[in-house]
Amino acid sequence: MPVQLRSDSALAQPIRCILSDVDGVMTDGRIIYDSAGVESKQFHVRDGLGIKLWMQAGFEFAIITARNSPMVDRRAGELGIQHVSQGSGNKLQRAQQILTQIDCDLSQVCYVGDDLPDICVMQQAGLAVAPADAATDAREAAHWVLHQRGGQGAVREVVERLLRAKDCWNPAGI
């Protein structure tokens, strides 16, 4: 069922926190193992700057992912992301736990997800967002389907669109 269309400003105003999946959102979704079995991931630098700008504007950013990866902890540490949940089988339950910690509710959340395990949170969030290459069901559950693909600046696109809609975009403040 399609989501009701509302303006960017109307959707963005209550948003205080971005919750994001990792694989397929912050990365292109590929899981790469070298010959020694070591996993690697690629993160886009513009996503990192976008996350920093979001948090500098006074908002929260958190990660919820079903997988466990030391690269996620490392990237979160580099960016100053304090709320990271890995190995989250029930993303909605974990989202609610994180939101309790930061005194926020789902109506104040922008959730960025790309696949079936994300839909339960997307359906409850104030703003649901999917990268351009997200699974069909995730795109259908989204208020916004991005121009960017996962791992190619999708998170930056979300941040910039939200901050512009909130009249908080300040590229000179970097």
Would you give an account of this structure?
With 174 residues, this protein is α/β, with parallel strands linked by helices. The protein has a single domain (8-167), classed as HAD superfamily/HAD-like (Rossmann fold, 3-Layer(aba) Sandwich). 34% of the residues lie in helices and 15% in strands. It is built from 7 helices and 8 strands. The strands form 2 sheets. A 6-stranded parallel beta sheet has the order 5-4-1-6-7-8, sandwiched between helices. The chain has a two-stranded antiparallel ribbon with strand order 2-3. Helix 6 (136-141) links the parallel strand 7 and strand 8 (144-145).
Question: How are the elements arranged and paired?
Answer:
Elements (H helix, E strand, L loop, with lengths): L7 H5 L4 E4 L11 E2 L5 E2 L4 H12 L3 E5 L5 H10 L3 E3 L5 H11 L7 E4 L6 H4 L4 E4 L5 H6 L2 E2 L8 H12 L9
Parallel strand pairs: 1-4, 1-6, 4-5, 6-7, 7-8
Antiparallel strand pairs: 2-3
- Number of domains as seen in the coordinates: 1
Shape: globular
**Average pLDDT for all residues:** 94
CATH class category label = Alpha Beta
Output the CATH topology: Rossmann fold
What structural class should be given to the helix and strand makeup? alpha/beta
CATH architectural name: 3-Layer(aba) Sandwich
Please give the share of residues in helix. Answer: 25-40%
Q: What is the tally of beta strands?
A: 8
Can you describe this structure in just a few lines?
This protein has 174 residues and is of the alpha/beta class. The protein has 7 helices and 8 strands; from the N terminus they run αβββαβαβαβαβαβα.
